[in-house]
Design brief:
The protein contains 4 helices and 26 strands. With 384 residues, it is mainly beta. A hairpin with a 4-residue loop joins strand 7 and strand 8. The strands form 5 sheets. It has a 9-stranded mixed beta sheet, with no helix packed on it. The chain has a 5-stranded mixed beta sheet with strand order 6-5-4-3-24, with no helix packed on it. A 4-stranded antiparallel beta sheet has the order 2-26-25-23.
């Protein structure tokens, strides 16, 4: 099985609240398709053509609770950086320069104001709060932006992903077996304990297959969602669908190669694994919408012309080390963050040391800020 996929145990994740909501959605009208032009190997997208370095941040790790296993989301607000580290079962807070401030690690437990597992987090920018969703127990933990716990609201259902806009919380939920698929729910921030409304549902899926990255991300105003095995990107605001991108990957996607009914994961992996079947980690500027798929390609969509191009090769000609997938972010205006590959940073620094010079001005900060024994290096890019 490709490293882009992992297994979900659907039957253990849902309560009746989500099950009820997932059965009462109205699908939006079909939007015109957006042809996706995919450039194969040999055509490279240079970062300098659409990005510029905004800030290089070294996240400190002076104690064990500051160490990050995996960055699932980066949340920026009020000169704070919040890292959603689901693998480490915590949210870690740094100041704007990367100095460790606090984490939720000491709240792991079974006592009052504690939790067993955190799932996702999002910033309520309007009210300056941090919302953290847990599945053990099912609850929403609400913090101020100094990571002080203010409130815990019990819930009756589970969301695999969540995000917040001005008035609503959005969540991605599994359908209740024997129904297969996902649904997008929405509810007012003040009532996460209520049965949510369902905005969308999608059933044409292969059980146990999902892409690394986030299907639900924030927008400059609202949020974006794209279900696994779907080719639509929906923009959300104020609890409603406001815009739809219907991405057509042609021969490279599942529209041309539809899934047979009741296909097994093994057959899917054999015949469809090379196709684009999941859109994740949407990030935007005023003019561009960027995303990844189950493959490592980078897709760039012009929001005005609805032209989309996908690149199998993209080159960091500004810092010279390879960048991987997009890290979902919130709070960046016209910005994007990529996973920085540790071995590529080390190789770049090794070559620069051997040559006795730093080849690009932007790289001068890297030797000072990169620490292989600490947390990942964060490079915030401005989208031109």
């Amino acid at each position: 099985m490709a490293r882009d996929t992992y297994i979900f145990f659907l039957s253990s994740l849902l309560f009746l609240g989500a099950a009820y909501a997932c059965n009462h959605s109205q699908q939006p009208e079909e939007a015109p398709p957006i042809p996706v032009e995919i450039y194969d190997f040999g055509t490279t997208l240079d970062f300098s053509s659409f990005l510029k370095v905004h800030k290089i941040i070294s996240l400190s790790a002076p104690k064990q609770e500051a160490f990050i296993k995996d960055i699932e989301r980066l949340l920026f607000a009020d000169n704070r950086i919040f890292v959603m580290d689901r693998s480490g079962n915590k949210v870690v807070m740094f100041d704007g320069e990367g100095s460790f401030l606090k984490s939720t690690a000491k709240m792991i437990g079974r006592g009052h104001n504690e939790y067993l597992r955190v799932i996702d987090a999002s910033i309520d920018e309007k009210n300056k709060k941090l919302y953290v969703h847990c599945d053990a127990p099912y609850q929403m933990m609400i913090f101020d932006l100094d990571l002080n716990l203010e409130k815990i609201i019990p819930m009756n259902y589970y969301m695999t992903e969540m995000t917040v806009d001005e008035e609503f919380i959005y969540g991605l939920c599994h359908q209740t077996p024997p129904v297969q698929g996902f649904c997008l729910v929405a509810f007012e921030k003040s009532h996460p304990d209520m049965v949510p409304d369902t905005l969308l549902s999608f059933h044409n899926v292969v059980p146990g297959r999902m892409t690394f990255g986030k299907s639900l991300t924030t927008a400059q105003k609202g949020a974006y969602v794209s279900f696994p095995f779907d080719t639509h990107i929906y923009k959300l605001r104020q609890g409603k669908i406001t815009e739809t991108y219907n991405m057509d990957f042609g021969e490279h996607g599942l529209i041309t190669h539809p899934l047979p009914e009741n296909i097994t994961p093994e057959l899917f992996d054999r015949y469809n694994n090379g196709l684009h079947w999941s859109i994740v980690s949407m990030s935007e500027s005023d003019s561009l919408l960027l995303f990844n798929t189950n493959s490592f390609e980078l897709f760039v969509t012009d929001k005005a012309t609805r032209q989309c191009k996908g690149y199998k090769e993209y080159y960091n000609d500004l810092l010279r080390f390879h960048c991987g997938r997009i890290i979902p972010t919130q709070g960046l205006q016209n910005g994007v963050v990529f996973h920085s590959q540790v071995h590529n940073i080390e190789e770049t620094l090794k070559i620069a040391k051997e040559k006795g010079n730093i080849p690009f001005p932007n790289m001068a900060e890297i030797p000072r800020k990169y620490n292989p024994d600490s947390n990942p290096l964060i490079v915030v890019w401005d989208i031109k």
